[in-house]
């Protein structure tokens, strides 16, 4: 998955029946999940937008 220059790895957890993912190539831990592929994609974009907003508010460079 890619959005705004960020990439993520995703997996499906068949025990819990959810998809989950995290940013790749980042020092910060950014995770997201969804019960369908569509929900996972939405959660990924929201996680990136929230992460970028947090970085802007705190004066940090996204890493």
Task: Summarize the entry for a quick read.
By secondary structure, the chain is α+β, with helices and mostly antiparallel strands. The chain has one helix spanning 37-58; strands at residues 2-3, 6-13, 18-24, 31-34.
Structure description:
The structure is a single chain. By secondary structure, this protein is an alpha+beta fold. The chain has one domain (2-58). The protein contains 1 helix and 4 strands. The protein has one helix at 37-58, and strands at residues 2-3, 6-13, 18-24, 31-34. Strands 1-2-3-4 form a 4-stranded antiparallel β-sheet, covered by helices on one side. A hairpin with a 2-residue loop joins β1 and β2. The two termini are 17 Å apart. The relative contact order is 0.20.
**Contiguous helical run count:** 1
Mean pLDDT: 95
Distance from N terminus to C terminus (CA atoms, Å) equals 17 Å
Helix/strand/pairing category: alpha+beta
Strand content: 25-35%
The rough form would be described as elongated
Helix percentage: 25-40%
For the CA atoms, what is the radius of gyration?
12 Å
Keywords:
1 helix, 63 residues, alpha+beta, single chain, 4 strands, four-stranded antiparallel beta sheet
Topology:
Layout: E1 2-3, E2 6-13, E3 18-24, E4 31-34, H1 37-58
Antiparallel strand pairs: 1-2, 2-3, 3-4
